[in-house]
Amino acid sequence: MSALPVNFSGLNMIANALSANHQMMNVIENNVANVNTPGYSRQTANLQEALPFPGPGFPMLQFPGQLGEGVVISSVTRSRLGSLEDIFRKQTQASGTLTGSTQILQQIQGVFGEPGNSGVSSLLGNFFQSLQTLGQQPDDLSRRSAVLQAGNDLVNGVHSLNNTLLNVITNANTQVTSLVGQVNNIDSQVANLNKQIRSIQATGQNANDLLDQRGQLLVQLSQLINVNVSQEQNGSAIVALGGVNLVQEDQVTNLGTITDPQGRVQLQFTNLPQIPVPLTSGQIFGVINTRDNVLGTPTSAGTIFNQLNTM
């Protein structure tokens, strides 16, 4: 009597289906749990047909063909489009520029106190009004004293305004130094994540959560400075500023600061000081550009300090 073929394919198929659907539910639950998590990318469990096996039989196959084993999870991938990430980072850089500029402009606005009784416009108005009043009775000593007092108030007001604007520059210098420290800190974190992502992807796995963390850091970095981001085949991100790579693999080129002859803090590459740092956008650019080209110096035409000095 021939042996009966033993076929467990039905049980295997059920087990695979239950396992695959259980894992799919885990992915869905993870998506829901992270719906408000900054930088999180929706993940998808990808299904594929399980590996089949030959039809059973002994000592030879009972029939030609193979029996299916149902379904399995082939991979879990994150839903993220690289081209849109690039666009988003560019817009984030533009937003950072406005943020940095606004912070300095709000300080300047507060210094001028306009409109208000302590503003330069009011002091000028009082001075010219006192002159007009004196012109009606030039011999009146009280009116002469009023002109002198109004003139002193104007001069003192302008001197006070100048000193306070110098404090705005000092605050801007401190802010630039702090923001450069943030850039270097983020670069170090990106380099560390590069190392971890490379290690995971070398095993054939997808480092979804680490990629999300790195993506969020790159957005924060774009808020600060105008970097360009590209990705290597091994999963590492290259972060470049102009022609200099701030991050490549797990290596970091730090930014540093120097003080120029006008007492303004500027940027430099710590190990490449001869190469200018090409700032075009981001919060650091917004602060430096407003400090240097809006406040300016007494000799930089059209700037606040120049106009104040001329007056």
Number of strands: 10
N- to C-terminal distance: 116 Å
**Helical proportion?**
40-55%
The low-confidence parts are: none
Structural class: alpha+beta
Quaternary: single chain
Largest sheet data: 4 strands, antiparallel
Mean pLDDT: 86
**What is the overall number of helices?**
7
Rg estimate, integer Å: 34 Å
Shape: elongated
Strand content: 5-15%
Strand arrangement, major sheet: 5-6-7-8
Element-by-element helix/strand order: HEEEEHHHHEEEEEEHH
Can you walk me through this structure?
The protein is an alpha+beta fold. The chain contains 7 helices and 10 strands. The protein has helices at 9-33, 82-112, 120-136, 141-201, 208-224, 283-295, 304-310; strands at residues 43-49, 53-54, 66-67, 71-78, 228-231, 237-241, 244-248, 251-252, 255-259, 265-269. The strands form 4 sheets. Strands 5-6-7-8 form a 4-stranded antiparallel beta sheet. α4 packs antiparallel against α5 (208-224) and α4 runs antiparallel to α6. It is elongated. The mean pLDDT is 86.
List the helices and strands and how they pair.
Layout: H1 9-33, E1 43-49, E2 53-54, E3 66-67, E4 71-78, H2 82-112, H3 120-136, H4 141-201, H5 208-224, E5 228-231, E6 237-241, E7 244-248, E8 251-252, E9 255-259, E10 265-269, H6 283-295, H7 304-310
Antiparallel strand pairs: 1-4, 2-3, 5-6, 6-7, 7-8, 9-10
Short description:
The chain has seven helices and ten strands.
